[in-house]
Design a protein that fits this description.
- The chain is of the alpha+beta class.
- The protein contains 2 helices and 5 strands.
- It has a 5-stranded mixed beta sheet, with helices on both faces.
- It is globular and about 45 Å long.
C-alpha cells in the first residue's frame, strides 16, 4: 500500500478529530471553512458556545507537541477568520471559544487525542483588524 500524502494524512487526522468531537457532544457546523485570513479546520457548537477548532497532528514521532505549532501568528489568523465566519453566519450563540485538538499517531496506528478547551483568548479582536 502506498504511503499517504501530507494532505491525505491531514484529512485522516481531521476525520478522527471530527468523530471525537461528535462523541463528546459537540455539534459540528462547518469543516475546512476558508476565509481570506486562512482556514478554520472545524467550527462546532457546544451548547450556546460557537467553537473554532484548530486540528494539529503529528503523524510521525516528534519531540514537538502538535499544539506548539499554534503560535501567535496562527492565533491571529484564526481569530480574524472566526470574526469573518461569525459576521457572515447567523447564530444565537452567546459565546465564542478557540480550542485546539492535538493528535498523535501511536505505534499501533491509533490516534491519541488531546482536547485543549479554550486554548487561547484573543485580547481584543478589534485591535487585530
Amino acid at each position: 500500500m502506498a504511503e499517504l500524502s501530507a494532505v491525505e494524512k491531514g484529512r485522516e487526522a481531521e476525520t478522527a478529530a471530527f468523530n471525537y468531537l461528535k462523541s463528546k457532544g459537540l455539534l459540528p457546523l462547518d469543516w475546512n471553512f476558508r476565509t481570506r485570513y486562512g482556514e478554520i479546520d472545524i467550527v462546532a457548537r457546544d451548547d450556546q458556545t460557537l467553537v473554532f477548532i484548530e486540528v494539529k497532528s503529528n503523524i510521525k514521532p516528534s519531540l514537538a507537541e502538535p499544539q506548539m505549532r499554534v503560535d501567535f501568528r496562527k492565533r491571529r489568523r484564526l481569530t480574524l477568520a472566526a470574526y469573518e465566519y461569525f459576521a457572515g453566519h447567523k447564530s444565537n450563540c452567546q459565546a465564542l471559544r478557540f480550542d485546539v485538538l492535538a493528535l498523535k499517531k501511536t505505534a499501533r496506528g491509533e490516534w491519541h487525542i488531546e482536547h485543549i478547551i479554550d486554548a487561547f483568548r484573543p485580547e481584543d479582536i478589534n485591535n487585530l483588524i
